[in-house]
Amino acid sequence: MVDPLAHVDPCAYYYDADYPSARDGGSNFDSVTGDQGIAYDIDRYEELARTTAGPILEMGCGTGRVALPLARAGHRVVGIDISRPMLEQFEQKLLAEPSEVQERLLLVTQDIKDLDLEERTFGLVTLAFNSLFFVTSDSAQRQALASAKRHMRPSGLLAVDIVNDIYIKREGIPEPKAFFTRVNPMTGNAYTRFDCIGPCDSEGRQRIYGHYLEVDIESGVQTLPYEMIWRPLDRNTVENMLVGAGFTIDVIEGGHRHEPYTATSQRMFIVARA
Most buried of 14, 25, 57, 193 (most Cβ within 10 A)? Predict the structure, then answer.
């Protein structure tokens, strides 16, 4: 029997179910979503988009979790990602959208640290849901922020959303832990994601790895290993990087509903001005 999941990229394949928002609703929007810190971020991006009048550049757009709702709301969006599997999934989703939504979206395969677009007048640039962390060296993270600045019009806004450093287990979690059980929208099958985290190396990078276990009535249990590398940052480092790239920080919030930032906030939502 041919394994239908043998050649998929698990991180892209399960992305929409792994990271649902309140907009998606359904059973996948569960109690764990609050811990992931993504329940209400789209509302915040829409608010910023209304104040800047676009166009919008999303750096690290993935499968369109943020970019697609912004386009549906009437904004013109350019989505950048280095992962072709992510963008291919986004492109498939776009086929089901009305033509006016499709026309508002442009998807580009590029590395955000080397971003080079013809358009350089974006009113809003977003680095949503830890995207900056997945640029995995100090120099590359600084280059990504400099790339954002080069593509913005004067006084444009940059939104950076990252998990607060105090919640990052830099020593790692070596034993696999069941993170959640959800439904794969492509198959209707239940799946469970198991996570491990390696310790930070000398460059501050961590390996996040594990496997997906999906139960299919016909083919039984299917297991897909996955792996990601990220480089988390603390508040002072991010602020220094932003200032070094030429930004002025407007506000640092503790969430997506204008929560004041404190040392125990789950997230850092940073709005900076070009």
Answer: 57
HEC profile for 50-102?
Answer: HHHCCCEEEECCCCCCCHHHHHHCCCCEEEEECCHHHHHHHHHHHCCCCHHHH
Q: Could you tell me the pTM of the whole model?
A: 0.94
Burial class, 159, CB count within 10 angstroms (exposed 0-12 / middle 13-18 / buried 19+): buried
Query: 40-166+232-273 has which fold?
Result: Rossmann fold (3.40.50)
Question: Mean per-residue pLDDT for 8-26?
Answer: 88
Length of the chain: 274
CA distances to 29, 32, 67, 86 from 44, rounded to whole Å, are 18, 20, 13, 23
Q: Please, are residues 162 and 268 in contact by the beta-carbon 8 Å criterion?
A: yes
pLDDT score at 1: 37
Q: Which of 18-27, 136-145, 239-248 has the lowest mean pLDDT?
A: 18-27
